[in-house]
Every structure is written in structure tokens, then in C-alpha cells.
Amino acid sequence: MFTSDNKILSALLLGALFLAGCSEEVEVHTRNMDRTFLVVEGMLTDNPAVPQRIMLTESVDYIVEEIPPAVSGAKVTVSDGTGEYPFTETPEGSGCYIGPEGFCGTPGVTYTLKVNAALDGKENHYEAVSRMESPGFRVDAVDYMYAGDKDTGLDSLWTIAIWGEDQPSTNYYFVSAMLNDAVFPIGLSLAMDDKYFNGQKVVCFPITTLYQTGETRKRYGDCGKYLETGDVFTLNVYTIPRDYYDFYMGFVSSTVGAAIPMLQSQPANCPTNITGGDAMGYFVACSTSSASVVIEDPKRPYYQKLFPFPVPSGR
Q1: Into how many domains does the chain fold?
Q2: Same structural domain for residues 116 and 176?
Q3: Does residue 91 have a cis bond before it (omega within 30 degrees)?
């Protein structure tokens, strides 16, 4: 369910926080290598309504601008200690493996991913283990505030705010979104900890911004389109283990640094929990909490709908 792009948009360099899932493959580019790595992208959630997906691709050289080849024909299973669930490649040749209908994770359970795949003509066995954490944050509501100016080209910037409650323990989160049926890729997502709101109720917390332009529409499809009346925007907050948080931060650091490759390590150096051979990426089991909002007026400030007190004068 989580996906990736090897180039973070330039707006991220300017400090804009983007919003995230499994709609495009992880593009791991490494410096000229003498062997091929398996790239694993797997996020097992506790949501039975969402198909569980494992993406498998091959690594490509850092200097090569191409879509990473899908790893097809692999045997992929996920076990919970009592049963083993086969994942089927759908569609064939895509490298995207889908779990059984209705299959999902349970908080507190440890899951093992097993992959048998052929790379460079050699069959290899890979494994990864991840324990699903209990939900650390309950999302009660989400809303938006228009922050752009359609006449000056800043017509696709919104602040996204959430209402909810954080648990007292230290937690780490992966924050993603959906616009209608379009799932945001990892390049439009973020990871964060609860340092500033640990154990607190959250009221109108500006968790991120949503930046949509013609370029994001071209790159990411419908999740990059301009918000319109009737659209449904969904924010997903995944409670993740610290090691996946470190992986995400390492991935973002490496891909942002790709603009200056001589001064920054590449994604090949990111942490991984995939064992058994030359592999990159991550398999993570995580609980989720979500909320949606129907877009009424794309230019409506959110305080006009959800703030429990009058709008300040002059606004």
C-alpha cells in the first residue's frame, strides 16, 4: 500500500509538506551496481475494506532514467503464526501482489512476509518480519483551508487540518491521503512523531499541506488534480514502528539529496528489514485511523465549518 517515487518534488525542498499508498512502484536508483537488488514495497494494514498489496520491482542504476522492471512470477505469502496467506499477482506481469479478499492485519500480531523470486536468473528467498502496533492516534475529523490564489497560479494550495486524540505513549506515524479513488504515492506523503502533541487531544492541527498543480496532475494522475465540489478527500494516519519511520526519513533524505548525488547517500543506503539476499525497501504492518471530508467549496476556509467559536473579525 505504500509506494514511492525516486524524486521528491522541488516544493519539498522549499519546506512544503506533502501528502500518500500503492499506486506506483518504488523507484530505487543506485550507483552503477554489479548486481540487481529486489525492491520490496509492502504495507499490511488492519483495514479489511482495502486490498493488501506487496509490490516487487528490480533496482536500476542511479543514472538511468527508466521505470524499474516489475518482478513477476514470484511466490509471495504473509503469515501470522497460525496461517499463511498467498498473495496473487494482479494483473499478471505487474509485480503487484494482492492478498485474499477481506484479509487484513490485527494489532498486536507479528507478521512474516516470504518471497521467492528470480533475479538475474537466480532464484532467491527473502523474508521480513513486522509487528502491528496498536493505534496511537484516533482521527475524528479532517478538513481543509484554501490557501492559494487562482488568478496568480497558486490555485492548488490547501492546509489540511485534523481533529483527534493521541495516546500517551511515544508513537510514529505515516500520513497519507486519497482523493476520491486516487491513492497518494509516497512522494506526496510524510512521516512524523508525536513529540508536540503526545497524549493530547488535537483540535484543528495543521498536519500538512496539499499542493496540486498541472505538474502534479501529470505525474500523479487524479490525486494531483484541483479540488472540486463533490470530491471526497480522505486522510489516513498509520501507526508505524520506529524502524519504518527511520526507513522513511532515510529514503526522503536520500531522494532529496539526489539533486546533489556527490554530496548525499543514495536510497541503497536506507534501512531495510528484508533479509535473505540483495534487497531494499520495507515490509511494515500498521494500524490505521481515517477520516474524510466532502469538498463543498474548494476555496472555503475550514474554520467556517468546524471551529466552535465565531470567525475572528476581519476574516
Answers
A1: 2
A2: no
A3: yes
Please, what is the end-to-end C-alpha distance for the chain in angstroms? 40
Same domain, 300 and 170: yes
**Angstrom distance (rounded) from CA 75 to CA 21:** 22
For residue 128, tell me if it sits in a domain. yes
As a whole number of angstroms, the distance between CA 37 and CA 178 comes to 30
Measured CA to CA, the distance from residue 73 to residue 75 in angstroms comes to 7
> Strands, DSSP E only, in the chain?
29-30, 38-45, 53-58, 60-61, 75-79, 84-89, 96-98, 110-119, 122-131, 137-146, 157-166, 172-179, 182-183, 190-193, 201-211, 232-240, 279-294
The string of pLDDT tens digits covering residues 92-102 is: 999 999 999 99
Q: Note whether 282 and 39 are within 8 A (CB).
A: no
Q: For 280-311, what is each residue's pLDDT tens digit?
A: 899 999 999 999 999 998 888 755 555 543 33
